[in-house]
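Worked Example 4.2. Consider the chain below.
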Amino acid sequence: MSMPAAARSAALPAFFARKGVHYSWVVAGVTFLTMLVTAGAVGAPGVLIGPLQQEFGWSTSDISSAFAIRLVLFGLMGPFAAAFMNRFGLRRVAATALTLIGAGVFGSFAMTEVWQLALFWGVVVGFGTGLTAMVLGATVATRWFSARRGLVIGLLTASTATGQLVFLPMLASLTEALGWRSALSFVLLMLVLAACVVLLLMRDRPSDVGLAPYGAEVSPPAAAAPASFWAMLASPLVALREASGSVTFWVLFGTFFICGASTNGLIQTHFVSLCGDFGIVPVAAAGMLAVIGVFDFVGTVGSGWLSDRYDSRKLLFWYYGLRGLSLLYLPFTSFSFYELSIFAIFYGLDWVATVPPTVKLAADRFGDKANLVFGWVFAGHQLGAAFAAWGGGFSRTAYDSYLPAFFVAGLLCIVAALSVLVFTEKRQQPALAAGN
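Applying the procedure from the previous section yields the following structure tokens:
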């Protein structure tokens, strides 16, 4: 029974090699699709707030609180997702994640109470998307690539943010024409497609298909798996304990908290509703988010290229600073097409351009435990996103306006831009150089 599977594993890289494609790029492509689709599921709530209010009479604050649970779990699963990948492999973890997300989306078709929204979209989708967070892209880039690693991280990071934004116009159109359940049916279909591709093409390591990582002559030895399941669960906590003594960790954690608050939590969740307050229909608002997604792709891939050549701290200073200025600019506009386009361009270029230099700083400082440490830094990102998702809803409910939340997010980005310059970039410490 094992021969056909072994034969298929050997045949796949041979087939792509005849086409002049190293199998590392196939795995990167599968990862790109997986992160793109799951990101679309993460971004779907951006067009659900209005329809859920109309159908069930739930308040913006209640809906935002349920969605905030998803963002918290999305982030807190990051370091444990890295541990699961180290023990069970990329293929199993990715397939399990897509199945969980699909189950949460499918279950939401029948919900009638706000606690069910919290269960399906907060808990189930939160756990599923957490398993395919940015840690998946960082792990694939580290395992499968020796050369062009920065470019790959930039591409995979761009897939996450771009998926969250580019899916929105289509979901908004389907919601307006056929209802929100039809829009989620499209998301469910894409999740099934991605799961099939993962099962067919994803592999855990280059050695599984008899190859070395792209750009390397030989495969590095795989790190030893934790001795037990409990040791695996404890490994992220051990990494956190060791990293928590580093100023670099807390600066990266704090700035990534602000990054999440000023992107996923605020813009992704509330931008469509904000535009609705100024008479802009959801499809047009979602289209503007798609423009942000296009410029984000350019900015993030470019950031990956720049992070291999320039001081990551200076790059982060400019990214956070420009993002903060764009957020402070938005409330002073009249929300015309011209002014929103200016915002979309400048804000889009900075959407997640912060990720490649942040990953690089984590790798330089924490060495072989960088994926676990980055998982905790990413947890800070999603805690910030949850804070802003709830804060935006609170601002709209309490003050009848989203604009106070945008002022706060803009000012926080300025704080992040200044704080990232106060620490000195250091190389990894021996205490943190143990294999993961």
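Residues 149-178 form the longest helix (30 residues). DSSP finds 18 helices and no strands in the chain. Compare this with Example 4.1 before moving on.
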